[in-house]
Every structure is written in C-alpha cells, then in structure tokens.
Design a protein that fits this description.
Four copies of one chain form a homotetramer. Chain A has 214 residues and is an all-alpha fold. Chain A has a domain at 64-204: Orthogonal Bundle (Tetracycline Repressor, domain 2). Chain A contains nine helices and no strands. The first copy, chain A, has helices at 11-29, 36-43, 47-54, 57-79, 86-103, 105-114, 120-147, 156-179, 185-204. In chain A, helix 5 packs parallel to helix 8. The interface between A and B is large, with 52 and 52 residues. Chain B binds a DNA duplex (21 and 21 nucleotides) through helix 3.
DNA sequence: CATGAATGAGTTTTCATTCAT
DNA sequence: CATGAATGAAAACTCATTCAT
C-alpha cells in the first residue's frame, strides 16, 4: 500500500546528487544548453526542489564550479609533499592533476571550458582556483632556482609568464590526453615534465634563448 | 555630422560588417548566449538581412570560424620564412601568433573557446586549423633535432605530445597576455620561446628529466 | 458570477479545453493561418502550457483530427442498427452524419477542408476515417442490390464510384446545410436519400422514397 | 555586348505568366505556404514587378480565383448546347466539367480546396461561380420534370438541395478521379450520370442510364 | 521598367522560474 | 517537504512588402 517512492534523504545528500547531475549535464551540454529539467530528472528529484536547495541556475552553476575547483585543488594538494625537492613536487602535482582530470572529465569540462565563457562572474570563480595553482607553480620555480644555487634574479613577470605557460600547457595536455585514446595520465605528466623541466633547467643555468633584434 | 545609418551598401560590404559584429558577439557572449538580434543591431542592419545573406545562426558561426581561422593561419604563415633556421622560424611564428591574437581577441575567443564546445561540426573547422599549426611545430621540432646533429629518434607520440604542449602553452599565453595589461606580444613570445626552446634543447642533448619510479 | 480565470485544472480537463479551442481555430482560420497564440488565448491558458501538453502545432492538429474523426464515426456508428434493412440503415446513417456535422461545424471543417490539404500525414488520418465510411456505404449498396433480388453484378469500380459520389454529395450537403439558414439535418438527409435511393428519374415519375416517421 | 536577358514583353503576357505561376504555386502549396518569392521566381520575373502588376498577395490570389473560375464556367458553358434535351445537357456539362478539372488540377485545387478556407472574401468569389453552376443544374432539373410531363411541383428548396447534392457529388468525384489513376473524365461523368439520373433504385432494376455515343 | 537592398511584424518554440496544494 | 500546474520573456527564423537606383 505504501509507495516505495520517496526515500527521505538528508538535505546534504540530496544536494550532492543534484550537483552530480548538474556537473554531468553542464559538462556535456554546456551551460546554456543544459536545462534545469534535465538536471532535475537526472538527479531524480523535482524541479522546485532544485530551486529550493540551489536557488537558481546561476547559483547551481557556481556551486558546481566551486565544488569541482575545490576537488581539483585538493587532489593536487594532497598529491604533493612539500618536504620534497622542487622537481619531485612538480612531478607529483602534475601526476595528480592529470589523474584527477582524467577521472572527472565532466568536472574538468565545467572548469576548463564552460565556466570561462559565460560571464565574468563564473570566469572569476575559476580564475581564483587557477591563480592558486599558478602561485604554487611560481613558488616551485623560485625554489628550484634557489636549489640550483642561482640568484632568484628572474624578473617577477618573467616567472609569472613561465608559470602561466606551464599551467596552460598542462590544461591543453589534459584535454589532449582525455581525447586521445591510450594516453595515460602518467604519460601526459612525463611529456610535460620533460618539456618544462629541461627547459627551465637551461634557464637556471643561465643560457636563455635570446630573441633576435626586432 | 556623421551619418548614423549608412544605407544601401553592396552585399560584400554588408556581409563583412555582419561578420565583424558576429565575431565580436560570439567571442564575448558565446555561441548560445549570442542572439541574432544583438548581432543584427551591432551590424546596423535588420535581422532578416542577416538571414538573407548568412542563412542561419549555424552558418553564420561557421562563416566566422572560417574567416578567423583563415586570418590567423595567414598571419602566422606570412610571418615565417622557411629559409630560416628552426629557432628563428619558431620565434617568428610565435610573434605573429601573439600579435594577431592580441589584435583580434574576439576572433581568438571564437576559435579558442567557443568553436570547440558547440558540436562536432564547429570543432572540426577549428581542429583543421589547429592541426595545421601542430604539424608545422612538429616539423620544426624534427628539423631542430637534425640541426642539432641528433638522430631524429624521438618517438612519434613523444613529439606529438611536445607539439601539443607547445601549442597549448601558446594558446594559454595568448589568453593570459590578452587579459594582463602591459604584456606585449613580444614579451609573451619571448617567455614561451625561453620555456620551449631551452627545454627542447636539453632534450636534444640527451638529458631528459627522468620521472621517479611509481 | 462566472469565474473569469479558472485556474489549476487537472491535465485531462485542460487538454480538452485546448482541443476545443484548437478545433475552433483550425476550423475557421485554417491550419496555417491559425496561430498558437490565438489558440492558447481562446483556451484561456498560456502558450507554454499548450506546448507542454500537446507538444507542437503538428501534434495539436493531429490530435484535433483524431478526436473529431473518432467523434464523427462514433456518432454515425451509434446511429445505425445493422439488423435493419439497407435503406433504413442508410437513412439512419445520413441523419446521424448531418446531425453531427451540423452540431460540430468547426470539427467538420477540420476534417473536410483543413486536414486534406496540409501534408500527407494529416490527409492520411482523415482518409482512414473516410474509407471506413465509404466501405460502409459500399456494402450497403451491395446488400441493397441483393435485397432487390438482383445479382450483385455491378462492377467493382462502378460501386466504388457510386459510393464515392454518395459520400461526396453528403459532404457537400453538410457544408450547404451548415451555410444555409433554416435547413435542418433531417431535410438534408431526406434530400440526399431521395437523390441517392430513388434517383432523379424515379423522382420524376412520382415515386419518391419516403423517410420513416421520426 | 547586349545582354540577352530581358525580353520586353507586353504587360498582358507578363501578367498571364505570373498568374500561371501563381495558380500552380497556390494549387500545390496552398495559399499561406505559397511564397511570393517562389511565385516570382517561377514566373521568371522580379518580385517588385509582381507587386507592380498584381498589387498584393491577396489581389493575386483573387485574380487566380477569378481567372480559373471563369475558365471553368466557360468550359462547361461551351460544352453544353441549350437546344438539347435536359439529360443530354447534363451529360455534356458533366463531361466538360470533369475534362476541364482533369486538365487543370492546380486551378481546380485553387477553386475547390484553397479558396474556400482562407477568409470570407475568397470563398465568396468561388461561391459566385458555384451558384452559377448550381443555378444551371437547378434549371435543368425543372426542365426535366416538365419534359417528363410532370408538374413542377417539387418545392423550391428541394430542388436547390438536389442541385447542391449533384454539384457536390461532381466536385468530390473530380477530386477522386484526379487522385485515382485510370479513371477518365468520361468514366467519372458516366458514374455520376447514372447515379443522378437513374438513381440507385433504377440501377437495381436493371435500367441504367446510357451515355450517348461519343 | 526592372531590380538588388532592406525591413516591420509576426511565426513556432523553449526555458528558467513560481505557486497552490 | 514534494509536486503538478502554470507562465513571462525571449529565441530563431520567415515573409509580404517597399524603396533607391
């Protein structure tokens, strides 16, 4: 006689189900093409409940970005041990990064593709996370320079550019690895490590490539 | 004093105006959020005329992608002289690339961000252009290895990964340079050149960075 | 005294209201000239609700055709008793037909005029109903021939043509009766019955077919 | 050096070309679905010229109706000789009618299907033609009654109904004959003549009306 | 006369969002 | 809490119609 339908679940659990559904939908369809109807159905709840808990499509998207950004930084952070030498830290961080993005392609799509193209507000959320990672890499570069017994005389903007390039390369490689069958997180990390570390190494030793006169 | 509404223009001119408006709108709002109304208004024409000339939102977007992709590859191509050594070619190409993307941020947004996430058809248009560039870079790496008197014995996937990382880093740096006031195309190119060339140089000399045992 | 906006009705009721409005609008304006706006307003609901329940203009039109076709065949079917002689069956059928079309002029317009000229799919829906009626009439003609102790040696195409003419005459008379004030369903049925059963020739000779007492 | 393009044709000729194109387009697509673009292109002229000569879509449609109605009545009129007996006149008229509608299916579609469902004004144009034909048939019935030495004591409305039924049957049979391969105008006329003149009753008794030798 | 250029007004359709129960 | 009922606002797209040349 009793319908088996509604398992009364605590709010926190329901919210996670909704976010799971939202991340998946936003990641695959894109922000605009994702409909609240689809998200609610995928989450197994009614639409008004989504609004009750998450308030609006914007807020829901923001919540997705925050959760996924937190999960990604947490994955990288917990993959790195700060008592290690700089190259080992970079390697561990890259490995954790590529592993996490490979395991959460929808979340990565939300962060890398969707969030950046739908208004300043969303982009800012991601930018915050990105800056955290760039700061981490920047510091690694400085430490590496010190470890190489070099004066940290690299100009600040130069270091920032290098970190930016490294993170950008990582992001592109993550997309490439996700899309290319047979490329593992480990291989992607090794490729980038080769590219980056050896290049930086040259720099550290004082032989930067010199651009020709304009 | 200035004519507010310039009327009765030849079709070719109007089409370019429409494409200008469309690139700007698509680049800033994204494909889905861009409305044909807004594009038409920005172009200074009525919606029906946009449809008469460009046929549909899809076709309009495709036309934007084609025009911008052509302009970008043309800019890079005409900036490079193939009778130069590999490092010079890469430098010239990067400079042309960063210069063009800095001068056409909306076009770059269309190619880099928007076109990739709205259906296979659009992504394919961009992928064709990107592959052209990746192939160019890949070949440069091989030539550089030869110029360095090294056997071109780098495994193919390794080279592909390196080229991908380089192009990805360039793409990210372009966005960074566009978003960071005071960073010139020349500086972005120099940063990446340092990063890439020195790193590859190390590789060429046979001392790649070795990942630790898992 | 009358509620102007009756709200929150169960779906089944609302759907019938929408179909009522749609039949009326399609019947009077035609399929293409009928706008979903007008239908929604006439039904007293918003357009999105019409789409939520009926899906599209096509589907809405199909639903109208089905409902009206079903209602008409049901009216004729329940007006005829198959244990009666052929002439009585024809009379009863015609009476039911003219009565129903007189009471539902818009539905009749949808079936007779609109549905036939807007694509194979719609026409097929009506053709199915029409063929059912033509088959019924065809069979009546054959039975009548047998009852008159005649060999049923009329060639098949001849009978098909006769049935077609009879049904066509009925359809036209229905429109005529609807458009001519003072013509009752009974009169229309009697006219056609005379025409069909006795023939003009018989009429001339003074032996018209006489309808049974009501 | 001179373009062969524009043959200066007299206005009357151009107008007929436009009407030809319009009848064909209206007949096949329907009034609303027919676009002025398509008509102009089919006529081989520019759209503004259509407006210059025919003024508007409404007026163009009205002109089509008038031309086709005139052609049809003229065909019937010239097929009948009023010095013949009534049955011969009816036969000749039916034959002319079925022949003309078979040879001008688009025109017949305009009159029979399209004009009736797009507003009172158009329907009235057709109604005028139809009444002319109904009047002709009505008179034939009266004459036939007289020829049969019967008092013309049929009530007026009865006669009107009979004529209406006869015309309606003819219209339906025309559509049926157009849609059924292998049915000739002559066969359609014979079927209706049998039906109308002899009646089903007569048929049953074995004395069908016989068409005169061609 | 003839036409390429141009548009106002409307069409179907979708979606985020809100109540009443 | 949970949900079926309901909508305002806007999107893509079309078409009859008009000028300037």
């Amino acid at each position: 006689m009793g319908a088996v339908k509604t398992k009364r679940m605590p709010r926190a659990v329901r919210e996670q189900q909704m976010l799971d559904a939202a991340v998946r939908t936003f990641g695959r369809r894109g922000y605009m093409a994702a409909s609240m109807d689809e998200i609610a159905e995928l989450a197994g709840v009614s639409k008004p409940l989504v609004y009750l808990y998450l308030n609006s499509k914007d807020d829901l998207f923001t919540a997705c970005i925050r959760r996924e950004a937190h999960a990604l930084t947490e994955a990288v952070r917990s993959g790195v041990r700060t008592d290690q030498p700089a190259d080992r830290q970079l390697w561990d961080g890259l490995l954790a990064f590529f592993t996490h993005t490979a395991e959460n392609p929808d979340g990565w799509s939300v962060l890398h593709l969707q969030a950046r193209i739908h208004g300043e507000a969303f982009a800012a959320e991601v930018a915050a996370m990105r800056e955290e990672i760039v700061a981490f890499v920047t510091q690694l570069i400085v430490v590496a320079a010190r470890e190489a017994h070099r004066d940290p005389d690299l100009p600040e903007r130069e270091v920032a550019g290098l970190a930016e390039a490294l993170v950008g390369a990582a992001e592109s490689l993550a997309a490439w690895a996700n899309a290319t069958p047979g490329v593992t997180a480990r291989q992607a990390a090794a490729t980038l490590m080769n590219f980056a570390w050896a290049g930086l190494g040259e720099l550290m030793e004082g032989r930067p490539w010199a651009p020709p006169a304009p």
